[in-house]
Amino acid sequence: MRQIAERANVSIGTVSHVINETAAVRPKLRERVLEAIRSMGYQPSALAQGLRKNRTNMLGMVIPDITNPFFPSVVRGVEDVAYKRSFRLILCNTDNDPLKEASYVSELRTYRIAGLLIIPAGSTDIADHLRAYASASVPVVCIDRVPTGWKGDAVLVANAQGAYEATRYLIQMGHKRLAVIAGPLGLTNAAERLKGFTRALNEAGIAIEPEFVQESKFDAVSGHQAALYLLRMLPRPTAIFACNDLIAYGVLQAARELGLRCPEDLSIAGFDSLEFAKFTDPSLTSVYQPGYQLGATATRLLLQRVDGLRSAPKKVLLPTDLKKRNSVAPPSGVVPAAIEWTGKKKATGGVASARRKQQF
Ligand code: RIB
Known about the structure:
Blueprint: H1 2-8, H2 12-20, H3 27-40, H4 46-53, E1 58-63, H5 70-84, E2 88-93, H6 98-110, E3 115-118, H7 127-135, E4 140-143, E5 153-157, H8 159-172, E6 178-181, H9 188-203, E7 213-214, H10 220-231, E8 239-242, H11 245-257, E9 267-272, E10 285-288, H12 291-306, E11 315-318, E12 321-323, H13 337-341, H14 351-355
Parallel strand pairs: 1-2, 1-3, 3-4, 4-5, 5-11, 6-7, 6-8, 8-9, 9-10
Antiparallel strand pairs: 10-12
Helix pairs in contact: 1-3, 5-12, 6-7, 8-9, 10-11
Alpha-D-ribofuranose (RIB) binds at residues 68, 70, 144-145, 189, 218, 244, 246, 271-272.
């Protein structure tokens, strides 16, 4: 700054005001300082500025699993909004490990981040860490799931409603032996999806077979194992609701290995409707959730807090949308209620007519 001041023939204070925008500087002087900065190739230290203000222009973002294609779409939404407001992102991946999560959350605060976005890991107890953020007035917004007892800001999707609609669709297609692979039930979104599934069965007067409710991880390996277990039962389920798409990919694979055809012998519905859902064989019926919008909405809310918004905590619920594709059809021999219910012409050939109703 001294060198710039000498080159521009102004005081160090003037240079500092131009760089930090702390006071209005006469346009002529300002231009001289900017010219000196350009010619000397000076780059202000974000670190030093952060130390001075006790806050940087960095946002922390903690996600459970970067290899799951759902989470990058959330991150894109976050990044786009943050970038436009000149905030930058520090991304941390917890591998669903609560200890790794706790250490990231507490470390990020020492970097003087302006705010934190977090998709909590399973069975997580980070309440104390997040309280420390509140006492330091650093805003936090939870995305997609919340830790137990969380009372702060959150942006989620309508998990129970989405699961309810998918299950109701399976029931309307004529399924009565429905199983669910629920994901980790310690997670609020998995628990909500199970509630939606249960509600649809209750409303239809279908008894819930306890063995047909399988807890799992949110990944394909776990979905595959749970599906092998379910599909070896006698009588086996005719439809499986998988509480995320990775689980559904595991179910598809298990069905193939057991020589079962999807959808003729087994209908499968997922949750997420990832890009790949259109390209599986058969394409996957799935509940779309707007990952990008989750991230973008949460970041807008976080930045409002950073700017000083002090209203009561907000819980934003984004809607889901059931995408009907080829992995769901009536069980063999059943004329689906759904075809009458949609007001279209009656089914002539069960599976084939249902397959025409796909959506992309
Ligand atoms: O696929 C990952 C799942 O875990 C998604 O359904 C998302 O909601 C997340 O919590």
